[in-house]
Specification:
The chain is mainly β. The protein is built from 4 helices and 40 strands. The chain is globular.
Length: 490
């Protein structure tokens, strides 16, 4: 702890190290998907919500000695609104809040719509489950959330009426189901034959922003192409949350590569981006090139950016300069640089990799420059040559040794954390036009630990959450530690 703090002070920051008494599920890849924060006790600072307990924040740390047990919700899901827990069971709603006297039940009722009960957990004829997760959204702007239940045909809205919620509208906006293909059937032996019915399926995304609902539905085309039908609806809270016909609009994009996915590259817009692999034709060895593609005009113009790297990814898009527009962060490796002899030497005897970030800043017209706005180079030390394919090299391939999503000094620019040496983390602060040439902060680190950058305590500065496998347990479990970022005293 002392070493980490002293090293960090040179960057104007320090870290408060805290063990978190929590076992992280092995299937939880990113800690940001496992932790939730909300001001549970109403003191103005967020608390840490875990699946089975809540750790209240006190004096810049989480109180691990007096955790609050989360009410049993094994048969329900929940959503949060201003510190209140909305528990959704089978046809049942319960709202609870923590007070000085313990958990207080604010509301308990049956949901009046039969579809609300079935939408949470409904069995198909094949025995599999369809999960439609309800969510909270303040459609009428009164500070009290409405409850939205996605269903097969659309979204059912429940609004607060006095002390209860009642169903007010069903927005039938989802695309209709269509028949899919039947998998190949066995003909022999005779007892293995089955009558197969084609499945019915539908795919779409629904984005809710204020009173606007944007529905994005893909239509697959021949030749690994896709186009999207983007429909925008406006609902009227004053008229039973009905769709306003005059404010409904629709566009159909140009055909684009099937790996292109909807992405909000600009606030309030629907753009499309993705990536795929190709191989350099001029290289003696088959050098992998990851191609990132973006379009901000519905496929009329598609911009492409190439970088030599083999990370399995759809591309990285991060707001690097704090202007609320996502920028492109491409990654490049020198493993295949040069001829056959150089590449073989790196793979068989090399224990370091020169890694480069290429940042393309989006302008106010939704365009990206043809060359990087700035680049940053990192010297990544390996524990063994790449040909041995050990854990650290696999982590490098999967992209977990670098993270460009954090803002540690609260200046609006995204900083970079690099697990560049097996025994340390290095933080490079973003100056607005690039990164520092040397690490601003270094933290001693275990080679077998993994990290994520996220604002755990809600102070506007990113923290570092560390995970590792505790093999002393049987079976082994994943454990967790937090480095909470603080501004160093002058």
């Amino acid at each position: 702890m002392i070493a980490a703090a002293l090293l960090a002070m040179f960057g104007g920051l320090t870290f408060v190290e805290q063990e978190l008494p929590v076992v992280v599920p092995p299937e939880s890849i990113a800690t940001g998907n496992f932790f939730h924060t909300a001001d549970v006790d109403g003191d103005g600072v967020p608390d840490l919500i875990l699946p089975d307990r809540i750790l209240l924040q006190r004096n810049g740390r989480f109180n691990i000695d007096s955790p609050i047990p989360v009410p049993d919700h094994s048969r329900s899901t929940y959503d949060l609104w201003k510190g209140e827990f909305y528990f959704f069971g089978s046809g049942h709603l319960e709202i609870m809040r923590w007070t000085d006297k313990g958990w207080e039940r604010r509301l308990e009722q049956d949901m009046e719509s039969p579809s609300a009960a079935s939408s949470a957990n409904r069995a198909t004829p094949a025995g599999r489950r369809i999960f439609f997760m309800p969510f909270l959204h303040d459609l009428n702007g009164d500070g009290v959330p409405e409850i939205a239940f996605p269903e097969e045909s659309g979204i059912t809205i429940f609004a607060r009426n006095g002390k209860t919620y009642r169903r007010v509208s069903t927005l039938k906006i989802f695309p209709g189901l269509h028949y899919g293909s039947i998998p190949r059937q066995r003909l022999w032996p005779p007892e293995a034959r089955r009558i197969a019915f084609p499945p019915r399926q539908m795919s779409c995304r629904c984005v809710v922003d204020g009173t606007r609902l944007t529905l994005i539905a893909p239509e697959e085309l021949p030749g690994k192409q896709v186009r999207y039908r983007v429909t925008r609806y406006e609902v009227d809270p004053q008229h039973q949350y009905a769709v306003i016909p005059d404010k409904t609009s629709q566009i159909i994009t140009e055909p684009m590569n099937r790996y292109m996915q909807p992405l909000a590259l600009r606030p309030g817009d629907v753009d499309f981006a993705g990536g795929d692999w190709e191989y350099a034709e001029t290289s003696v060895l088959p050098q992998p090139i990851f191609v990132t593609q973006v379009t901000t005009d519905n496929g009329a113009h598609v911009e492409s950016f190439r970088a030599p790297f083999f990370r399995s990814s759809r591309g990285s898009f991060v707001d690097m300069n704090g202007d609320d527009r996502l920028d492109i962060v491409a990654e490049a490796s020198d493993l295949f640089k040069g001829g056959v002899r150089e590449s073989i030497e790196r793979f068989t005897n090399g224990t370091s990799v020169q890694h480069e970030l290429r940042v393309y800043i989006q302008d106010d017209q939704g365009r990206f420059p043809p060359v990087p706005s700035w680049t940053a180079s990192f010297h990544i030390e390996m524990t063994h040559p790449p040909i041995q394919n050990d854990k650290r090299f696999r982590w490098y391939q999967s992209g977990v040794l670098l993270d460009a999503s954090g803002d540690f000094n609260k200046d609006g620019y995204r900083d970079v954390v690099a697990h560049d040496l097996p025994n340390r983390l290095a933080i490079y602060l973003n100056t607005g036009s690039g990164l520092s040439s040397r690490p601003d902060i270094t933290i001693p680190f275990d080679p077998d630990h993994r990290f994520d950058a996220l604002d755990l305590d809600g102070d506007g500065r990113s923290d570092i959450v560390v995970q590792w496998r505790d093999s002393s347990q049987s079976p082994p479990v994943e454990r967790c530690r937090a480095y909470l970022t603080r501004e160093a005293a002058p």
